[in-house]
Design brief:
- The complex is a heterodimer of chains A (220) and B (271).
- Chain A has two domains: 111 residues, Alpha-Beta Plaits, CATH 3.30.70; 70 residues, no CATH class.
- Chain A contains nine helices and six strands; from the N terminus they run αβαββαβαβαβαααα.
- In chain A, a hairpin with a 3-residue loop joins β2 and β3.
- The longest helix of chain A is centred in the middle third of the chain and has 14 residues.
- Chain A starts with 10 loop residues before the first helix and ends in a 12-residue tail after the last helix.
- Chain B has a four-stranded antiparallel beta sheet, with helices on one face. In chain B, strands 1-6 form a two-stranded antiparallel sheet.
- Chain B folds into two domains: 84 residues, Alpha-Beta Plaits (2-Layer Sandwich), CATH 3.30.70; 169 residues, ACT domain (Alpha-Beta Plaits), CATH 3.30.70.260.
- The relative contact order of chain B is 0.14.
- Chain B has eight helices and 15 strands.
- The chains are: A alpha+beta (220), B alpha+beta (271).
- Chains A and B meet through α4, β5, α5, β6 and α7 of A and α1, α2, α5, β7 and α7 of B.
Amino acid sequence: MTNTLHRQGKAENLKKDYVVFMTTAAGINREGSAPEIQEFMRICHKYHPINMGNVKVGNIYQDGVEVEEFIAKLGEGAGSTAVFTDLDTVQKVVEELIQADLGISINISGLLDEVQDCCRKAGITRHSAEHSLGFWGAKERLPERETLEINTLCGHGMVSFNLIRKMIEYVKLRRLTPKKAARILAKCCECGVFNPERAEKLLEKIKKGDVTPSGKSVEE
Amino acid sequence: MEIDKEKCVGCGNCHAVCTMGAISLDEDGKSVVNQDQCVECSVCYRFLKDERYWPWMVRAIRRVLSVFRLGYLADVDVCPTGALTPPVLEWPRSLRGMFSDPTIVHPGTGIYGRGTEEIKSNDVTGRLRKGEAGLVVEMGRPGIGAFLWDIEKVAIALARLNADFETKNPVTQLMADTRTGKIKDEVLNEKVLSAIIEIKVKLEKIPDFLQALAKVQKEVDTVISVGVASRCLPDGSIPHEEWVRKAGYTLSLNGKTNLGLGRPLFKETEA
């Protein structure tokens, strides 16, 4: 699965975007893994992630979700995720996960060098790593950059280009605040890897006119 | 997805939510799904809350408002009358949902969505070992979707280099012959939100495969997200980096890291 691999953005944006997730393997450690999955989520929740989710149960931005109840519903099987916005917090989460020794595979999506530093500080050597080599093929069919940046925050592609454009329009017309619009977008992403804070900041920038219609930042 | 015309009031909320832009307003003022383009991701059904209003009531209110040249702007995340209706899908259309709806467990992999565990559980499965790299070629992503006929073109191009297709991968399972990359004819006209061709290669073969991919990308009418993975060396360095650079490609700053906390840890000597 490559859900969180192709997140777009500059290093300064990616520095505020880390997805910590666990994966069980069938026939090895998946069976009976519900307590470990729940513990993983409890540890993550302690450090106030900006989003949490599980493809089976949904994400915390969906209507009527209580986090404790949400964690209690997690069963064996599907991977679970939590999104953080700074490396110091990720460091603490990793150290607590090492202490907890849950025995399930833990991955982090984010700036590779920073995650590597995080591993070193925690006294572990990373096991495997994956890079994106970008977008190929009919790239002329891709939308403007800010739409793409928000779209790739959901690896399953559940946040449509058109909904993002609609939210941009609503924010510009002040029908929605950037925060509310970002939370609406986050609802679409079933497994909870969407970073609503990044989306909100981008929408805020668009609202202020700091991003031109061509998708290029005025600062460039 | 289908829309119940008896219930639809033509508010248009589902149009923007559709990942493929496959919903539009019909001549009767009610929404309709282009079934050829719909990938059965069901995001419209899950995202839009059913407000359970009576259609006649919504229509009546709108008519009254229109007399005064006023409109009613519904919240963006609702379907006022619950008109979206997920159909029971028959084969081969059912594969659209298997690849496009992350809440469906793929029968071939036993996990949710269109992918496999790939490097995410490499610490316990040993799927990618010393000297190997995983190449993940995701067709249709981001946001464009892909027909199986385009996916087949890429699979055939990679198969010419004796690609070792991952057997648990859903695309591999659709192949009539993994030696040629040919996909079963019965599914070629199906469209999915995205599908991942997953192969294992020797590190030194990475440039050859990227070259083949660079050539075939011009023949497809969709986008492709490409990723490469490998098992780290004992000092934590990433062996595929050197080979990707030799091939002339730029690696992303961000990526995925498996921390190696899974147990029991896979040991290559035991294999």
